[in-house]
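Hi support team,

I'm filing this because I wasn't sure whether my run with (R)-mevalonate finished correctly. The job status page said complete, but I'd like someone to confirm that the output block is well-formed before I use it downstream. Pasting the exact inputs I used:
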Amino acid sequence: MDDSIIKGFSKYTKHQRIDALILKYGFDENLALWLDSFEAPDQITRKIIDDLSENPISSFHLPFSIAPNFVVNDKNLFFPLVTEESSVVAALSNIGGFWAQRGGFHAEVLGTEKKGQVHFIWKGNPETLNLLFPEIKEKLFAESAFLTVKMIKRGGGIISIELKDMTPVLPDYYQLDASFETCDAMGANFINSCLEQFGKSIQQYFRGNEQLSVKERDCEIIMAILSNYTPNSLVRAWVECPVDNLLDGKTSDECRLFAGKMEQAIRISQSDVSRAVTHNKGVFNGIDALALATGNDFRAIDACGHAYAARSGRYCGLTDILIQDGVFRFSIELALAVGVVGGVTTVHPLSKLAIQILDQPSASELMMYMAVAGLASNFGAVKALVSGGIQEGHMKLHLSNIMNQIRIPEENIDQVQRHFQDKTVSFSAVEEYWKSLKLEGYEDN
Ligand code: MEV
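And here is everything the job wrote out:
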């Protein structure tokens, strides 16, 4: 066996883990001190953050940002955002205010149903199973009742359990296909517990049914797991304004030209997968930043959103445009499942703050805010793309990152920015210019 294989790493203390890192990579002995400098100052917060994962050696920081001026269904909000992509926050801040002056965002939730399946193999006659199913279903509800009491009190629970004959796709394969209402929770634990209980119950049912043949008494549970695809947990958001009022300080003709280009860009995202993926990446720039800030599982949200984008059998852009009777309407319809209680949302101190910043929304309200964030970041990206490209804005942010890295003093920032206004930004170009400035003796000023 390979001697370098480490066993029981999760039982190591933080210091032992860092020592293992130093041993393996030859890092400086001060690594522990340096890593410690990224940790929360108080022990309680450190423990909260450490407990969110396994084998932590420090905390990994990302900016916690704010995009102001989001008017959603007449409510004016700040959007809390966690992302490493500064242009996403810059665009959202801009687009929030842009639409606030045009009636704000509108949003509605069309459904909140969550799904999960027990996948099982049963080697009997499908018709027998269909006949037995009403009795089985009763048992499934009865034996999972101990898990659903609290959720039912909150207004949720198991909505339905259906039997799906999947034998046309795989021999002897069936599903218990269940729907749930999980109220303000994302509900993953609740759903998975119910599904695992269904698995146990159905197995017991077959095992104990002496009217069945020996072969039919055997039921193999392959897995019981929620589905992150929630096509009936659906939200819609939109903005609209007269076409002639679409751009600040521009003529009607310019506004119409812009509207037409936006429409073409959306049609392209709906007809070409290469563009659709990037288009939707721009949608999820906003959604993920809000999901991370509020402690929601962005991987689940993204997986669901991309599957929803392919619901017609072809992967398409998620946003849509309608220009009719002089009105420009830009919209998104999105399947997503979120929570505002339980999980990271109620544990991470900054997620708790993010939820407060959003004025303690319900899960449905958060769904609307996420759709709005996605719509806004997509609008910002496509607006920039059809009006000369994104590089100008990106380069400004790139320049500011480079100036940070080179440690250009605050008092010289303006001068460097002015110099690069009409020049190509690169690390070496900024470094060169900075050297030349120093040679000119700016330090003496
Ligand atoms: C970059 O993070 C996102 C964009 O590429 C999205 C788009 O192309 O629509 C600008």
